[in-house]
Every structure is written in C-alpha cells, then in structure tokens.
Specification:
Layout (H helix, E strand, L loop, with lengths): L1 H9 L9 H10 L1 H30 L3 H26 L7 H21 L4 H17 L5 H22 L4 H65 L9 H18 L3 E8 L2 H8 L1 H18 L5 E6 L2 E7 L3 H16 L3 E3 L2 E3 L3 E7 L8 H16 L5 E2 L8
Parallel strand pairs: 6-7
Antiparallel strand pairs: 1-3, 1-6, 2-3, 4-5
Helix pairs in contact: 3-4, 4-5, 5-6, 5-7, 6-7, 6-8, 7-8, 10-11, 11-12
C-alpha cells in the first residue's frame, strides 16, 4: 500500500515520472522494447491496410475510386514499412515524436480519405475507425498527449466526413459518438494504467538495485573491517611486525613441519642495547622510533620464510626455518651489522643503535618452542653480561 502511494505521488497525469531525469532514464531503458513494439505494429498495420483493399474492391469494383484507394493504401503501407526499417536501424526513432506522429497522421488521413469514396460502407468505416483508435492507444508506443491529439483528429475527421458525405439520422450519429467516446475512454484508462504499472515496476527495480548496491557496499565494508581486525589481532601496532601471540602460533606450525620433515629450526632472541637509556634521555617518542627502525632493519636482512615478532618491550624474537646454528649465526650477524652500522639521526644528533642476539636450535624431540626460546634467552643474557652488541650461540642443546 505504501509503495503504491509513493509511486503515485511520483507520477503526473500522463502516468510519467515528475522527475524528468528519472523519466529519461526509464525511456532509455524501454527503448529496445518500444522499438520492437513499433516495428511489429507497423508491419501488422501494413498488412491490414492492404487487406482492406479487398473490401474496397467488393464495394467499388474496378473503378477510379478503387484505384485511388489502392494508391492511398499502397503509399501508407510503403511509409509504414520504411519507418519500420528505419526503426530497426535506429531504435531511438521509436521514442521520437516526429516520425511516429507523421506515420499516425498519414494513416488517419488515409482512413478518412476512404469515407467519401465508400459512402455506402458505413459499418466498415466505423469498424476501421474503432480499430485505428484502439491501435493508437494500445499498439503505438507514444506519449498520452500525442495519443489524445491523434484520436481527436481521427474522431473529428470521421464525424465531419459522415455529416458531409454520408448523412445519418441524428440518433444513429449520437450512438456512433457515444461508442467512439467509450472506446477512447476505455483505451485511455487502459494505457494510463499500463504506463503507471511499468513505471512502478521500474521504480521498484531501481530501489532493488539501490538496496543491492548498499548491501554489496556493506558486505565489502564488513570484509574490510574483518581483515582490519584480523590484521590488528596478528600485528604489533607500533612496529607493524607479528605480535607475540601470532608469532607463537606461526612458530609452532614451523616446529611441527620441521619435526615432520626432519629439518632444522632455529630461534633468535634480539634485544636493543641500552634501550632504557634511550627512553630516559630522548623520550618515549624516540624510543618508539628506535623500535620501528630496528624492526625494519631486521626484516631487511631476513629471508621470506623467516618469522619475526615483537616479544615485548625492546625484545624481538625470530624463527628461522631450515636453518641450523651455523646458518642462524650468519643471519644474526648480518642483522646485527645492519642495525649498528647506520646511526639513527635524532634532532640533529646521531644515536648509535646496537642489539644483542641469543640463538638456539629447537631440539628434535621437543614438543614446543618454549625450551628453545629459553636457551636463546639465556644466550642473550650471557651476551649482555659480556658487553652487548654481539651474537651468542649456546654450546649445547638439550634434547628430550
């Protein structure tokens, strides 16, 4: 009920959208349909126009009047076929007032031309006028004002022709007028209803498309939010690397794979030297910058298969798949050099950065990475006690 009322408020007396842009969009959408309808109507009208030539012959015989009517019907039929061909090549002509109304004018004039030449075919003339009036409303894709104008010309010409060339009793003429008026009213109401239903369907289609578009945008927004939340859940906000929880998940996956395949897996604990002094002297903002720079330099020397995460505070942890202690030490040394060789410029001053790295290998019989991390942490602590800025490898791995 609400939808019907809303659609009615959007339409004018012609059954067209009050919004000209919306009406233009509707007409563009209906262009192919209107072109097809007009072509079919013109072809059918051509056949009917020529078929009525048989009626002319039965009433007039092979007379001059018959030949004149035959010529008129041939001209109208040829015009219809030419317009149908033009619409087939250019569908936009189906919504152009000029060619459609010229064809209607020619057809109506041809029908009216038959009345003075067939004065004794009153019922045939009446049937032709009724059929033409219905066709103007129901089969020609025209706008209602043009339909009314064409039918006014048709009815006015018919009544004048009947009065001049085929005088009828007043009561009969009144009956003809009432009949034609009823046909016009019925057809007008029908075509107006069709126009309104078409536009109501079109409006519902636009609304459905809008809802689908909004739904699609909402789904895309939700997907982006889910991706964002997953990224936040797995990533350290400051450095952009894997956070501690996600690191342990990935490292455990690598441990299981290494145990299954019989390949080595090494771990590194990385600690920024004198980080508390950096925070105390230069402030937490510079401390955060140092963390970001160190994490970026670590990533620059790691392999694609390596996993780095922020362990907490100024500590980072790295998993090195397919790396024994020798390979792990080489990687750790490159990492340490990448960090300490380039000072960090802070407020016009150069701030030296360095890290201490403890290394261990996950034992073949170990069921978690915790023992390996503990050994790496002990090696790290040993490196800090021995002067920092170094890589320390434990001498012995305890297997379980």
């Amino acid at each position: 009920m609400g939808t019907t009322t809303r659609n009615s408020n959007q339409l004018d007396w012609r059954g067209e959208f009050r919004d000209s842009a919306k009406e233009a969009l509707f007409r563009r959408t209906m262009q192919a349909h209107d072109a097809c309808q007009l072509r079919h109507a013109l072809v059918v009208a051509t056949g009917l126009f020529l078929a009525f030539g048989l009626t002319d012959y039965s009433l007039l015989g092979l007379s001059d009047a018959f030949l004149m009517l035959l010529t008129m019907r041939s001209v109208v039929a040829a015009s219809f076929l030419l317009l149908a061909l033009a619409v087939w090549r250019r569908p936009s002509l189906a919504q152009s007032p000029l060619p459609i109304n010229l064809a209607c004018l020619l057809a109506i004039s041809g029908l009216l031309f038959t009345i003075p030449l067939r004065t004794d075919g009153v019922m045939t003339n009446l049937a032709s006028i009724v059929a033409a009036s219905m066709a103007l409303y129901l089969f020609i894709p025209n706008r209602i004002p043009w339909m009314l104008a064409g039918n006014s010309y048709l009815l006015g010409g018919f009544l004048i022709s009947m009065v001049v060339w085929s005088p009828l009793p007043g009561g009969v003429l009144v009956n003809y007028v009432l009949l034609l008026s009823f046909v016009n009213l019925l057809c007008l109401l029908t075509v107006s209803r069709i126009h309104r239903l078409q536009r109501a369907q079109f409006d519902n289609l636009l609304e459905e498309r809008s809802i689908n578009r909004q739904l699609k945008e909402e789904i895309e927004h939700r997907n982006k939010m889910e991706q964002r939340l997953r990224h936040i859940a797995r990533t350290d906000e400051l450095t952009g690397i894997t956070n501690r929880r996600h690191f342990f998940k990935l490292a455990e996956q690598e441990r299981r794979r290494a145990r299954r395949d019989g390949t080595p897996l090494s771990l590194c604990m990385v600690d920024i030297d004198y980080f508390k002094s950096i925070n105390d002297v230069h402030g937490h903002a510079i401390g955060d910058l140092a963390l970001t720079v160190v994490s970026a330099r670590c990533q620059s020397v790691l392999r694609d298969s390596d996993i780095i995460g922020r362990y907490g505070g100024e500590e980072f942890v790295i998993a090195l798949p397919l790396a024994n202690l020798t390979t792990a030490r080489e990687i750790a040394e490159r990492l340490r050099e990448a960090i300490c060789l380039t000072p960090l410029e802070v407020e016009g001053m150069l701030l030296d950065l360095s890290v201490t790295v403890g290394i261990s290998r996950v034992g073949d019989g170990e069921t978690s990475i915790d023992p390996g991390l503990l050994r790496a942490d002990r090696a790290l602590y040993k490196g800090k006690k021995s002067g920092r800025n170094c890589v320390v490898v434990p001498r012995k791995i305890t297997s379980h």
